[in-house]
Amino acid sequence: MLLTIIISVSTLLLGYLWGKHDGWVEGYNRGTVDLPLLLREQSLEQGYCVLCNEHKQAQVVSEKM
Amino acid sequence: MSPAIFEQAGIVIAVILCSIAVKLIDDFLDNDRDSLAGCYNFSKILGNGIIVYGMLSLSIAASINASVSIPLFLVSYSIGMFTDFKKTFISGLSGLQESLLVFSLGVILWGWQCMLFSLFFVFSLQLFDDYLDIYTDQLAGYRNLAHRIGKVECLLLSILTLCTAWWINEHLFPAVLLGTAIVYSALLYYQRGR
After folding, report:
1. Are A3 and B167 a contacting pair at CB < 8 A?
2. Does any domain span residue B190?
3. pTM (predicted TM-score)
């Protein structure tokens, strides 16, 4: 009985640690993929591009010229 | 009173006295840190005499049941030292060395079973205490085990070590748990009320 509880709690703990580690890795990877797109989206909404570091207004003026 | 009940009652009283001794000595050592953090400490009431009361309490506990109270005290000392394992103490040894030395001495004097039972039991208590005090210790600027390994991990490990202690010595476990629960509840009631 006691040994069963020990094995159950050990399994629960190992499962929790495994899940937490996998969740952390998956979250980190997803963040790495999503972050540049989110930053670019937000910066374009504010009128500039983080990648080419160019202002939207300046780009429009240069295109007209 | 039958001899079996008398023996169990003796264990409970020895554990209560041993726990009081550990608490008083811990408060004596952590007096400065607790004063800075504003935590309650028995040194405020007992002053420098706190260490004498701790010794007295341990002596009575050892007189009632030495084979339970002394291993519990030695393991408490080992675990207390282990938390400061890099620090060098007055003996010239690091916390880790002192911790291992005291534990080995306990194994030679009291045997594997007593020391392993005490180790798992006290470690379980330490983990549970850290689980409850995670925010208080964080405010005091101390990273306890729950903060280091995670709150859920700390609670699960506490349950696991408690069950392991029970598995190692099924005869001793209920009385030791009862004695510890009495002291722990009294301390929680006393300290949280302040």
Report:
1. yes
2. no
3. 0.82
